[in-house]
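User: Second chain of the day. Same drill as before.
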Amino acid sequence: MAFEGLAERLQNAIKKIRGSQKVTEDDLKETLREVRMALLEADVNFKVIKDFIARIKERAVGQEVHASLTPGQFIIKIVNEELTDLLGGTQSKLMVASKPPTVIMLVGLQGAGKTTTAGKLANHLRKNGKKPLLVAGDVYRPAAIKQLQVLGEQLNIPVFSLGDQVSPVEIAKQSISKAFSLACDTVIIDTAGRLHINEELMGELKDIKKTVKPHEILLVVDAMTGQDAVTVAESFNNDLGIDGLIVTKLDGDARGGAVLSVKAVTGRPVKFVGMGEKLDALEPFHPDRMASRILGMGDVLSLIEKAQSVFDAEDAAKLEKKMRNEEFTLEQFLEQMQQVKKLGSLESILGMLPGMGNISQKLKDANVDEKELDRVEAIIRSMTLAERRNPNILNGSRRKRIATGSGTRVQDVNKLLKNFEQSKKMMKKLKGMNKFATKGGFKLPFMQ
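Assistant: Same format as last time:
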């Protein structure tokens, strides 16, 4: 989980003063020392840490505490606000050209994930009403053009390419005309990277910039490289000038030092973060929500937005009607489970809920196995349509066949059916409770 190590340390640091009616100077000193150590372990830039701690101390000492807050809560409020500011303050959105197309140029070192990110960004923009064109401008890396074309086919998004014998500058130039002809309102140019920053790389990128005058130059960096990502960002910003960053593989970095340092060091905001390998795993970066998540206060707003993008309101209404009429079957259960899986891993979902620090350990303690969902899906898929709609016909021989077909045991099939029946009984009870509650002038929110 992103920031898991930092989140755990920071939450432990402020836990001691949370709710305290009185916070002494020694208490504050101890808390800030723990915060400093947590940030150092998260690989945050030392100068950034020093300034961050100094600002908290300046605001905490001698300030009048609001009547509705305890001194402990007041300090946590300051830490939250300063952490939000450190991460960028407010969400930084992409610039949109007054006259289409908006030109976005992706730059970065080789291996940062530019090509995949180009596809993810195009997918994100299309979901938000844009019509993007992907441009294969990396003519040096073997199979880079083919990779982008495959992504375009998967997403049903057009890809412009002139092969690997034409200069990237010419490809970028002609892509603008192609966007006009296809009525695309956004052009995303995938450029070449190198293993390290050199004059040849920067010279080519400057030529592309001069030719197409991009509205956004976004640097793609790998969160796993830690402070190296910040150094790369500083160099690209000084030599080329960037408008923002996309930080990839944040889901695999438990420290998160790059994201915490880059705005303070470069002055350029993080605009998107990559939270997985799937093509929909690119999220707009919200500093306030991320700060809240790090401090264990949750990020319910992002979870709601994610659910709204996954769940269809019309389908949900149909499902509710079936549940009311007790027509809920294993077929609908499978559909719902597939939609829940689209939200991401159980760890990422729980990480957005308040008070869920150290998710990995909590899942382990609760003996929760995420592979259980895959087993359940395999079992249901091994059933016939008639069996899914009417589990009562599942006799011993049918259960044995299903277990063999799904690579599970008969006990697993029995367990699923037992849990499903218990769920149906629970729904029936809730329906009954709602009828009773209606007489008292109110209804359960999910049983309207």
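The two ends are 36 Å apart (CA to CA).

User: Great, on to the next one.
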